[in-house]
Amino acid sequence: MHLVAFGLNHHTAPLAIRERLAFPAETLPGALAQLVDSQAAREATIVSTCNRTELYCATQQPDAALAWLASYHGLSLDEVRPYLYQLDAAEAARHAFRVASGLDSMVLGETQILGQIKDAVRVAERAGTLGSLLNGLFQKTFAVAKDVRSQTAVGASSVSMAAAGVRLTEQIFASVGELNVLFIGAGEMIELVATHYAARKPACITVANRTLERGQALATQFGGNAITLAELPDHLHHYDVVVSSTASQLPIIGKGMVERAIKARRHRPIFMLDLAVPRDIEAEVGELSDVYLYTVDDIAGIVEVGQQARSQAAEEAETIIAHRVGEFSDWLKRRESVPLIRALRDEAERTRRNALEAAMKQLAKGAPPEKVLEVLSVQLTNKLMHPPTQALSSGSGAAHDAQVALIASLYRLHPES
What we know:
4-stranded antiparallel β-sheet, alpha/beta
């Protein structure tokens, strides 16, 4: 059983490709079950965010698991292979450690990804696809991320996507305090972004969501109001800023809807930030005059602010990770020895049981206990010493020398002394 990880991220694939391989949260349990049921993997965890889709699995058929990923999304492997990376055990661990520590993120040192990985692990655990191998990997991953956060300043002064959105807005408008802001969706990302905008005290905050109740619950936190997604066409023109992040598989806002909104606004500019993967806002909207449309990839330059200041901390984090990868590799090697250890103990137990049964029979026949114990001890000694003695007495050359050295080490023997 091999530990492998494969996927794609903002370093290897454009948004147009990432959105085609994304897993909406509600589909993850079924996807995990399907993967394991297909026998392409015995254990599996899927991490799917706006910046990455990654599959960690324990499998005897890495190629089959890779083919499943493409097939699940209705794609051929040839279509996605140029964007994919595949990592074996040690490199998979290193990658997981770096991702959880915020070293592989668009925002160096950002903390949201750690929570997203924890969520992915919980989903896999509930789906019954998180076995001992992946559980060991991710428990180590969480411990490494904690060490990096506590022992380095890698997260200091990081600029999040949420903060970057506010910065972009302030490059277009004089003051957020004079703007009407619309948030589409009511998930964790929208809550985070809304917190940053609310700190600037905009004139109005509205949350549009599929269910009014959930939207209202979030809007209440920021003194705003809520509408349903169905009301968007009638309300869009009221807003200077639109931030969207939903799990919809199809765009929520089309070019025609925005054209009508711009006309009603008499061509006053509108800032739109689409943080969803797949995208919530049609790409063609960006072609319209008076519309400033940004996606998660577009704000990469903004979030690089502070990168140089954190480079030394990142080097320190890489040192911690390198050490922890070595520990994890040692753990994997010990796991590989478990079947051999079990077989060795089973063989010793059979030898003990046979010797004991023979001794009990002799005692039942009235043999002196002292003699029975002597025979028992000699028999056990002979049985247990036969394999190493036979190994020492046979073979030649380098292989024999290696066996001699190994047996001397195992039994802590130093015949030359």
